[in-house]
Queue: 3 jobs
Job 1
Amino acid sequence: MRVLIPSPLRSYTKAREVEAEGATLTEMLADLDRRHPGLRFRIVDEQDRMRPHVRFFVNGAQVLDLATPLAPSDEIQIVQALSGG
Amino acid sequence: MAGLARKPARKTTPRRRAPRRPLLLVATRKGAWLYRGDPARRRWEADGPHFLGHVVSHLVLDPRDRRTLLMAAKTGHLGPTVFRSTDLGRSWKEAARPPAFPKAAEGDGGRAVDHTFWLTSGHASEPGTWYAGTSPHGLFRSDDGGVTWEPLPGLNDHPAYRVWMGGPQDGTPDGPKLHSIIVDPRDPAHLYLGMSSGGVHESLDAGRTWAPIIKGLEVVEDLDPANVTFHDPHCVRICPTQPDRLYQQNHCGIYRLDRPSDEWVRIGRTMPKRVGDVGFPMVVHPRDPDTAWVFPMDGTTVWPRTSPDGKPAAYVTRNAGKTWRRLDAGLPAGQAWWTVKRQAMAADASDPVGLYLGTTSGELWASRDEGERWTCIARHLPEVYAVETAEPER
């Protein structure tokens, strides 16, 4: 499936769009981390909680549960709210 | 801290050894900078930013190989990590397994590292060993040069320590900090650390077990000093040439501890009353255990934590805290409301000792004569979080 990567994470992927596989968001993130080591821990903590300001969208709809099932045709967007100062 | 060359190479030496060049490692809220000095410490050249936009809490050179840099970093939106450079900052690699708590049982909530706050290289006899302190309170160890990190459960998971570590309300506004991890230069298994808040602690078995050392320390009025949670060490330092002596800048005063005693002595009572003895950093002399420096801040009323009366000054004791002397030559004479954080003041090992400090207003100041005269060496940096000195391999 296609995964859209926000700019803060492109030091890992070197690309705005990458491919990853998985039957759930959790599995997709594990695959993404295999392909781009270190990426997952920057957006999901050691208790498997999404970090603050990180959001996942599947086909344009926000999902809050990492167990959300995915299909190979899904498009995943990782979004980071660039708040701050 | 590491030293600079004290003598130039002899002219008759066929292969003249170039004088060593000092290095300042500056961590800020928006990235890191390396300042490379000339041997006289008069001119400083900025190398950076490294990781612009990252919140860098600490940047440290491994004094054992003098090439490896470790950086504790996160961003406002990305989780915490550690970056490593084995070529003095020319290239960086991320730790394969940064400090992280174990996965908690289902429904237990579990702790997550918000940021790594403090890095300490291990004993000289243990190359590749590092310790990290985090927020919330956590102690981690690496045995492979900072590539992978493991939690130390003897502290992190000890039932009493879980209580003493307190909750978010017991820490600084930026979260509780485990800091001042100290390795006794005589014994790799002998460790100290501080928790803001949560007291000062000692381990004699490489971090497997710990015990508080809080006797003699004061706490905020009306609180019980017997309660470890209420103790707030800001910065603890060991004297390199007399490791039985420690100095501490605490939320409630300046202290000295001479082991084997376990009772801290408040040596800040002799500071001028209008200045007080509150501050963040504590700096020790590399050779003279009777000499130490502090940088006081206003701890009155609502705790502005700025230089008292807007007049920044370091204070030095040359007699282990019996008396203090103000050192402000070259510093602004007024209307300078500085805050110097606990990691943002450091000494080198030269003779005379060089002192360095960074302000939250983004200035870097240096003294080549143990604080007698200060010079601004950089302005317009982001908020400075930490300043370390180093003597890199050439």
Note: Chain A touches chain B at residues 8-9, 37-38, 41-49, 51-54, 80-84 (CB under 8 Å).
Job 2
Amino acid sequence: MTAGTGIEDLLRELAPQVLGVLVRRSGDFGAAEDAVQEALLAAALHWPADGLPDSPRAWLIQTAGRKMTDQVRSEQARRRREGAAAMREPPPAPVTDRDDTLILVFMCCHPALTPASAIALTLRAVGGLTTAEIANAFLVPEATMAQRISRAKQRIKSSAVPFAMPASDDRAQRLRSVLHVLYLIFNEGYTSSIGPDLHRTELSGEAIRLARMVHAMLPGDGEVTGLLALMLLNDARRPARTGPGGELIPLAEQDRSRWDQALIAEGMALITGALAQGSVGEYQVQAAIAALHDEAARVEDTDWPQILALYGLLERMTGNPMVALNRAIAAAMARGPAAGLALLDALGDRLAGHYRLDAVRAHLLEMSGDTEAAVAHYRAAAGRTTSVPERHYLTSQAARLRAQDEGGHGS
Amino acid sequence: MTKFMLLQNYEGGAGCQLPMAEWAPQDIKAHIDFQHALNAELAAAGELVDAQGLAGPELAMFVTSDGAGAPVVTDGPFPESKELLAGYRMIDVESQARAVEIAAKASAAPGPGGVPIQQPIEVRQVMGAPSPDL
């Protein structure tokens, strides 16, 4: 992904609108998507030199429509006549743009797709990124990503999803898929902001842009607002999450003066507004927890009892054992390490062998002064993590504690 | 998606211990065709990151250095050359189960007479991003 220029931003904004129009007219998602990509490339090539057309949107619709007609012409005669006829229709009135774009998002995040396919298709069809940019972000060859996108389009075609707003009983579930896909895109970028994958961080920015777009279309939906707030409140801490050598800096040790206060203010305003509307969902609860961290000027100012209560709520909502781990940390901070360790014991074997369980246990054992057991669990966690920065962090924690312990015995 | 390395050495498997140079030509061809077909299948599925064979143990070197003096370069022949890496595939897949499925296919590559070699495939997860909670 290259740095956003004026034209590039405009193209990204127009891409889903243009695609929505073409899919609505032709009923062929795959062909329309290919044609829009070609039109976007043509615009990126011509506009900087020739200047913007009077109506960039109309230019793109016309160009993509022409490419699609060419494509269709090269196929069989019956399809050629139908396609060409479809392309002669005038563009629909702009009032449908918003609906078309939203329908497109629903389509790309369809639950029939695997998460990886939905992510790739959303970034390309809604985000207007090229296949090469997406491949680069996910560290796979362009041909591999092209196959993934093409299979996703095939899948949509064969599942015969109509280009229409989902019926209201289906809609809540479909919206959940959309939010899940956007959150996965955000985390792909957010978690890679450490270490060697620094260039992938633009995925977070893209996820935020897409979440803003969905929020603008569904301003009254508390979970959409909650997700956007959660992204902003987490992204605000990004500058402080990495040390000079690219190493991981946990929340408690971050330099809070480096947090982005503008993002925090925006996220706070969004989540406060959403919570006041009632009907609280899991993204809103997560955003509320992020907000409590973000508003603590010093780590010792953190409102742990409140965070503990929210993790309790989130665990009841989701039943997710990873949430239980965070709740154990909050319990330890609010009531002491024994309370946190008791919650870990209550997990039974639900997370047996997962490195995060060992990492959290190590942390709580360290808090309780059981250095030897803490070292053992930090080491166990380091052996099972699948992330290099985490392995460095956990190995260093074990080494630091062991050195402290030996130093203590020696004096 | 998670990336895995599927690694194989020169050890052969329960189905075949014979070095490939001693196979019948049509068996060698069938084996090579199988490897190409597997790569093409992974590429079409959007799962292939890279697949490479390595030059033989005859060209392998071991290099050590204390950071000060000239490096020590040891070349072959090596008594344990069967343990050297022969080639690898890097795949990007939905799950560990899928990685195991692909490794199983690779292990069943045809040897002499089309009998599956049953070569052990080492499956290693490539390190990825840290947890978003940290």
Note: The mean pLDDT of chain B is 91.
Job 3
Amino acid sequence: MRRVLRIVTRRVINAVVTIFGILCFNYVLIHLMPGNPEANLAPHNPQYAGFLQDNIRTFGLDKPQWQQFLIYLQNTFTFNWGISYFYKSPVADKIIPALAWTLLLVGTSTIITIVIGMVIGSYAAVRRGKSFDFISTGVGIFLYGMPIFWLGLMLQLAFAKGSIFQQYFSWWPTFPLGGRIDEDPSFPPWAWDWTHISSVLTHLFLPALTLSLGTLAGVSLVMRSSLIDVMTEDFVLTAKAKGLSDRQVLRRHIFPSGLPPMVSLIALDLAFVVGGAYQVEWVFNYKGIGWLTIDAIDHLDFPMLQFIVVIGGVAIVLGNLISDFILLWLDPRIKIT
Amino acid sequence: MDATEVSVKRPTVSPFRASLTVAVKRVKSVWVQIYHSRSAMAGLVLLLFFAALAVAAPLLAHYPPLQAVPSSQCSTFTPPLTAYQLPCSQYPLGTNAASDDIYSQVIWGSQVSLIVGILSAIVASVVGTAVGLVSGYVGGWIDEVLMRFNDVILSIPWLVLMIVVAAKVGVVDLTGLVLVIGLTGWSVTARVIRSQVLSIKERMFVERAKMIGTPSWRILMRHIFPNAFPLIFANTILTVAVSILSEAVLSFLGLRPTSTVSWGRIISEAIDAQAVLNGNALWLIVPGLCIVFLVFGFYLFGYALDEILNPRLRRR
């Protein structure tokens, strides 16, 4: 138990150090961006006159550099994120709702990816060297190498109204090509009813499908190789020699030792998934964190950039930390790395 | 008793010749394995196809990538316009807003993708290898600092990191693009190399070298680096694939040099021109397929090579 506690402490400390590092790194990056940081954060433009004094005070722009940094750290943790120039509204009010939408997108597609990827990966491992293995590995690598934004564009092409497929098959479905929800002004405001939920789900379908297809191989290939590794162990041979059926060997002996490495590898893939999510959001005009980030970079909306870049990083660190804990729970023998 | 000198005529081989022979033998045996691996050969064929395309671009392309072309016989507009022409025999993929021939642009684009992909992968590998070697071999607080920094870089979504750096450096030319992609893409390599170094460090020959007082840098360069090299090489091939994807994303988002045409830029221009609504879906599809198959080639070849060169990973 003390060993476990030591590992947990060490991991948590690492995560905290990494998050602190992300904050520092981001601060430096923003201050390296073209132009004078003070002018960037509070541009002297008559259009923004109202926000100028406000942001100078919020970010402490009239104070020396080191104090600005401390103020930045303090602001980050108190959600006092200043006012966005482009949207003319507090940054936190824009980022936090967007975060919920992104979590919906990434969460849905990650769950789909993990379930389908594990099924495909384990079937390919069992049928190793057969045609299913060959085809699923090939298709997996093919999809993995696809630029995710282009995959999204192709799915838009396939599921748009009057697509080529629809001309040949009358049953071919269409899906909305962008947005998070029906944005028609006549559409009633949000309520927890079927009209709204179905609208959200149909809008979610294509982005989630794109992200899942693009990252599927990350799970299925790792699952396959990790199971194949276990299959060559002696205890599997013993289990077979005892007369257990293939299914029993797989469920009782191969899965339990093949799964732990999966968890950490899926967590490593998380950064890739988040990077993909940014592209998907941009292509599908799905206004989550990714869309807002690229948008903020486009407009050089510095108060926004200061915090939104950090969000993605913190999400990845937390994801990795959670996976470490799951790993520890699955396999207590794990070493500190 | 006199020891009788037995003179055996031994052919004297210079150490250079000897190591050359060994190297040639190794390359040959790797080649035999590549030859017998279906996926490696499939990847190699794809790569050779695109390499040929890039080399023969001046012959295959009808026009320079950024030059307005005359209106064609099959222009659907009256009076004939040169911009936004639909695909026809003269311009197989049509023309874009600036009346450039898209087919020629796609052909020229292969050069940009290959050059940027390979050069940025080399930059990333050199930096990543250096960090990995030092971090793994020296250990201690240097390792700790480098790895925490690496965690930070790995944790900031790579796309954002790249965009922010690109906005800072300003991608006015291909050199800028290569530096942005290379300098943001070394973290995974560093981590992989570090763990390999940690395991090589424990091997007997390193212990022996230490015992006879070989200086650290010499152990690093003569014993550890050569043993990690196959891993570095296979990893670089895979990094090329990732770099090509990064280039495509950056160009698609508009962070690209104005004077060169890449596949990502062609796709981005197709979107701006609403190519699909205007009946020219090929404008969007063909450059995308080029990216997909080039990256697929690098992945197939890279994964197969990784299995061949790094026996630890080889299927038992």
Note: Chain A touches chain B through 45 residues (CB under 8 Å).
